[in-house]
Amino acid sequence: MRAAHLEEALHAVHESEERYRRLLETVTNYVYTVRVEDGRAVETTHGEGCVRLTGYTAEEYAADPLLWYRMVHEEDRAAVLEQAARLLRGESAPALEHRILHKDGSERWVRNTPVIRRDAFGRVAFYDGILQDITGAKNMEEAARHASLHDALTGLANRHLLMDRLSRTIESARRDGVKVAVLFLDLDNFKPVNDRLGHAVGDEVLKEAAARVLAQVRASDTVARVGGDEFVVVLPGQMGGAGAAEVSRKIIRALGQPYASLGGAQGPGGSVGISLYPDDGQDPWELVKMADQAMYYVKNHIRSSFAFHSSLVRQAGLEPHDS
């Protein structure tokens, strides 16, 4: 009698598994199933949707048992393995969003939702991974994040991203015992360009100026647009002021060249004020403020040049530096 009941229970489990399988195939384009014995994965099968999502066929997965692992983005493999380990132990595991590399070399984002199936004795017999392509949603999410941290016109960092990076740079400089230079740049005579030629041309001049500033710095530096024609440059890893002075000269020279957006005419130059961490302050806002003050000193004395805030404090009336 017990054997009959057990056979009936097993039959019910098999029917339930088949209904479950058919249901999964209707709600997702890719389901893989891992067969488990004694807490170990012994076989993996891949549903028909694997080709649409990954470019690989079920036969290719069967011929190469480690293909699924190599397909996972290198930076996400540890998280995927941890998810699998929890399932093999019979523990619940939340859905995991990770990247895979399609057969054509493109990168895709997927949501990997695992579901454990147990046998009549409550042991883990299988687990199914439901893979959904969320690349589009991730791209939209990244675009929104980028827009929230960057200037829409020039593509440079905005004020929020600037202060975040400057804070992190100061923390790193504090640990390493080095300086940080903050350059506050304002374009000279930009308002007449807007007034005479209109905002459309003015926007093109701003984009050209932004590209020129960006071309004078390292990849590790930060360039941000913080106002209409105001920019801030952060130079980490400085030993003194010599590097900031050289970058300022390069920026001023670059801004003084003819502008394609003005038909080859000379456009606005730039005036730069410089502050140094820790000489002029410990706080990001304070350093930007000190650099801004030095820039205004330059604007009121000799434009298209630069000055250090600390020099102005030590020597009242010190002339700015010619470019």
TrEMBL record:
Give the matching SUPFAM superfamilies: Nucleotide cyclase (SSF55073), PYP-like sensor domain (PAS domain) (SSF55785)
A Pfam family the protein falls into: PAS_3
Boundaries of every PAC domain copy: 94-146
GGDEF domain: which residues? 178-311
Q: Which domain of life does this protein belong to?
A: Bacteria
Tell me which InterPro entries the record gives.
Answer: Biofilm_reg_signaling, GGDEF_dom, Nucleotide_cyclase, PAC, PAS, PAS-assoc_C, PAS-like_dom_sf, PAS_fold_3
The residue ranges of the PAS domain are 16-91
Q: What is this protein called?
A: Putative signaling protein
Q: Taxonomy-wise, where does this protein's organism fall, top ranks first?
A: Bacteria, Pseudomonadati, Thermodesulfobacteriota, Desulfovibrionia, Desulfovibrionales
